[in-house]
Amino acid sequence: MSLTAQTNRAKPETISIDGLFYAYKGLEVFRDFSLHADSNTIVLRGPSGCGKTTLLKLLSGNLIPDKAKDMPSNINSCLVLQEDSLFPWLTGSENICVLTRLKSSQFTNHPMYKLIAPFVNRKACQMSYGQRRLVELFRAIIFRPLYLYLDEPFNFLDEKRIGLVLPFLQGEFIEGINLTMTNHHRDDLELIKSANVFHFDGEFPVSRLERLS
Question: Where are the domains of the chain?
Fold first, then answer.
């Protein structure tokens, strides 16, 4: 999990990218790439290795574009990658407090907390992959960045837990947050009706994305 936060909040603008160029180890990934959304929730779909995660890293400031005319600010952004990022020797609660700088009393009343309450006081190394994923998602949501980037957020979650998490990725729970998520094989994220869904075709370099909704 990568966090870049500021105390002062501003209303997030919808994602707008123009003239993005980026190459990695000789592979031209993005060439004069543009994307314009009219929703504060975006779903990026496409096969593995098509550039989705790279785009999230560029948006969040974890990668630097070779060139870009227009990119959203990466200040006050949060990127949650597919890989587990919890400190294994800390409990779930400690992992939340360390990175968000919140006290446990500040988030135990959040409606999503009940999903992690049964195991949040275990050390991360004693949790299942699915349990750790829920802690990571909860931590990102209560951190409330202006720009939240989730890479395959439902990895390691079963159908029941996906259904329980989905409501917290829309509506009042992400009000004031610009949310962008990747998804390579599921239809779950399309249940978020307000989302703009863009599709990567898997061909490089990427200049444009097909908008599905």
Answer: 15-211
Residue 175 CB contacts under 8 Å (≥ 6 apart), including other chains:
none
Token pair 């006050």 is found at 76
First to last CA, the chain: 28
68 touches 21 (CB < 8 A): yes
Residue 102 in contact with residue 142, Cβ under 8 Å?
Answer: yes
Residue 21: Cβ-neighbour burial (10 angstroms; 0-12, 13-18, 19+): middle
CB 76 within 8 A of CB 4: yes
Architecture of domain 15-211: 3-Layer(aba) Sandwich (3.40)
pLDDT of residue 185: 59
* pLDDT one-digit tens code per residue, 163-184: 999 999 998 999 999 999 998 7
Average pLDDT score over residue span 52-75 = 96
Q: Are 36 and 16 in contact (CB under 8 A)?
A: yes
Q: Is the pLDDT of residue 6 over 60?
A: no
* Mean pLDDT to the nearest integer, 104-114: 96
For residue 75, the tally of other CB atoms under 10 A from its CB is 13
